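User
New here, explain this?
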Amino acid sequence: MKAVGVIVEYNPFHNGHHYHITESKNETGADIAIAVMSGQFLQRGEPALVDKWHRAKMALSSGIDIVIELPYVFSTGNATHFAEGATQLLDAIQCESFAFGSEQGTIQPFLNTHSLLKKQNEEYNALIKQFVSTGLSYPQSLYMAYEKLKKLEENDYIDLAQPNNILGYHYIEAADRLNLTIKPVTIQRIQAGYHDLINTDLSIASATGIRKSLFETLNLDEIKKFVPTTTFTQLNAWCKTHNQFINWDTLWPLLRYAILRNTPEQLTQYADVTEGIEHALIKAARKSTSFSQFMTNLKSKRYTWTRLQRMITHIYTGITKETLHQFSKPSYIRLLGMTSAGQKYLSENKKSFKLPLISRVASTKDPMLQLDLRATEMYAQGLSLISQHEPNGDYQTPPIRL
C-alpha cells in the first residue's frame, strides 16, 4: 500500500482539509493518507480547541486513515523544529511522499527558494543580522533578507509572507537537511486564506475564522456549512459535554497562577523564556483580568504574539529549557487512531518502520512521551474549570478504530 503523509493540527477539521486530503491522494496515487497531528498544544503556542481524540475522530471520518501524534517537543516548537519532527515521523512510518497546502500551489518555486537560501546561506545569515540590528523582529528580518536575496536571481520563488508557504518551505528544508527520501508535494489552498474570517458565500473557511466564530457566539450552526458532518457532530458532542471550547482565555486563571507562583529567576528556566522578559510577564499577569488583556500589556516590538504564546505554553505545562532541549529527534510513533485500511497498512508495514510504534502509553517510559502525558494532564486541568465531566486521559484512551 502506498501512503501519503500530511502535517496537521485540525483545529478544527474543515472542508478545506477534506479537499487537501482528496487532492493529496489524487496527486500522489496513494492508497492511504497518514496525518501527523499536534496533540493538546499547538505550534502557535496555544491549546487546541478540542482535545486530540476528538480531532483524530474528525480526521478518520473524513479521509485520513492513520493519525499519529506529533510530540509536544515539536508541536510547540518554531517552524524549523516543528518541520523536523513532523517530516521525520512521516518518513519513519514509510510515507513515500508528504503533501502540504500552500498559497503558491506548485512545488518548483519551493525547490527554487530552498536552493537559493542553501546556496547563499552565509549572505542570508549576514543580512538577517543586519536587519535584526535595525530593531526588526527575527521573523521580519528573515523575510527582508530573503526579499533582498531573491532580487539578485532570475527565477520563480515563493512568497514567504504567506503562512502556509513559510511552513511548506520549512518542511522541504528539513527533509533535505535530514537526508530524508520522502518526496514533497503541494496542493493549492483555495477560497479562504489562513487568517480570513468566515465568508458565507463560500463553502470553505479558514480554521482561524471558524474558531473566531465559535468563541464569539458558541453557535455551531454558523460554521455548519464549512465543516464535514462528522466534524460538526464531534464539536457538538464536545460542546454539550464541556459547555465551551478551549483557548487561553478559558485557561487564564490557571495560567495566571502558573506565572505568579514563580520568581523572575524561576521563570527564566522555562523553555523559550528569554532573559529580560521575566519581570514583564509577572507585571502583566498581576494587573490583567483576562488573557487578552495580559497579551496586550505584554506585547512589544521585540516579541511576536506567537513567540510570547510559546513561552507561556511552557510555563503553563512546566517544561524547562533543560528538559525540552535534550530532545532533537522523535523516538517513537504514537498511534492515535486508524481506519480499517490504516490498520491493514500498519499490519503489512510495521516491521519496516524506523521507530517503534506505540499504541498503549503504559507500555513505555520514553522521556519524550512523558512530556506528552504532562501536556494532556495540564490540558485536562484547564478543562476541569469549565466542565464536571472527567476528561479523556492518555492511559485510559486506546487508539481509535473506525
User: Anything to note?
Assistant: The CA atoms of residues 50 and 158 lie 33 Å apart. Residues 251-323 form one domain.
